[in-house]
Specification:
Length: about 260
């Protein structure tokens, strides 16, 4: 026992000495380090208007980056996917399963998969030539908007597009290439919501039949105090799993684009 006590005392003394050395050496190491970089933003007067152009370009790019989530949501297949997934969850009566994070993450990855040809075309024909300084900024945006506009035109209903063209007034575009993005984007969003609601209605139909059958059985048995959702939800999940619902749903959504 005495030997163990002496051994513990020696170990504790060694740890104490190491701690003291660490506290002494640490400030010296911090002082010995090189100076850290400093970032400062200021406003100075300029005598030439040309010097203001790079500043405006930087502000414009920062604005585009801040609006990037909205652009991804409104100009891609993300809207249709996430609305259909929420309709599916409501029809299954699973409340928060899958969670919003899972549904949004799945919709994002499927969006990247669906938009991969468009992204590749934008990168090859617009971004890379701009980075190589072969084209200017305005030409880059013109080249980048063409494949995105073509994708949205394929998914936009003609009725919705005519609505915004008529509301905008002025000279009507003669070709699809002349349609402005400010007119095409809201028409595309409405078309995507309409398509998503149609798919959601088709998803609700079989689940609604199960709810009606379960509710009728419970009512005939006199179990009016038992919530029908508690009984119908396992049957909905079983039906969805037996028909391989995720496979069929994802396949139909991707082929729809």
């Amino acid at each position: 026992m005495i030997e163990r006590y002496d051994l513990r005392m020696k170990l504790s003394k060694k740890r104490f000495l190491v701690l003291i050395l660490f506290l002494i050496v640490l400030p010296a190491m911090v002082n010995a380090q090189s100076s850290l970089p400093k970032v400062s933003i200021g406003f100075d007067q300029s005598n030439s208007p040309e010097s203001l152009v790079p500043t405006l370009q930087i502000l414009f790019m920062i604005t585009i980056l801040s609006l990037a989530p909205s652009i991804i949501i409104m100009m891609t297949s993300f809207t249709r996917l996430v609305v259909v997934f929420h309709f599916l969850r409501q029809s299954l009566s699973t409340q928060t399963v899958p969670s919003n994070q899972i549904l949004v993450g799945l919709a994002l990855f499927l969006t990247f998969f669906i938009m991969k040809p468009v992204i590749s075309e934008v990168n090859n024909k617009a971004l890379q030539p701009y980075l190589k300084k072969e084209i200017n900024q305005s030409e880059m945006f013109d080249r980048a908007s063409k494949p995105i506009k073509l994708f949205m035109l394929k998914q936009t209903n003609e009725k919705d597009l005519k609505l915004f063209i008529n509301l905008q007034g002025g000279e009507k575009p003669k070709t699809p290439a002349e349609v402005q993005l400010s007119t095409l984007i809201p028409a595309f969003i409405i078309s995507e919501l309409t398509t998503a609601f149609k798919i959601g209605f088709l998803l609700y139909l079989p689940m609604l039949l199960i709810d009606i059958v379960v509710g009728s059985v419970l009512l005939s048995m006199g179990m009016m105090m038992l919530p029908p959702i508690m009984i119908s939800m396992p049957f909905k999940i079983l039906l969805f799993v037996l028909v391989d619902g995720w496979y069929l749903l994802i396949e139909s959504l991707i082929r729809g684009f």
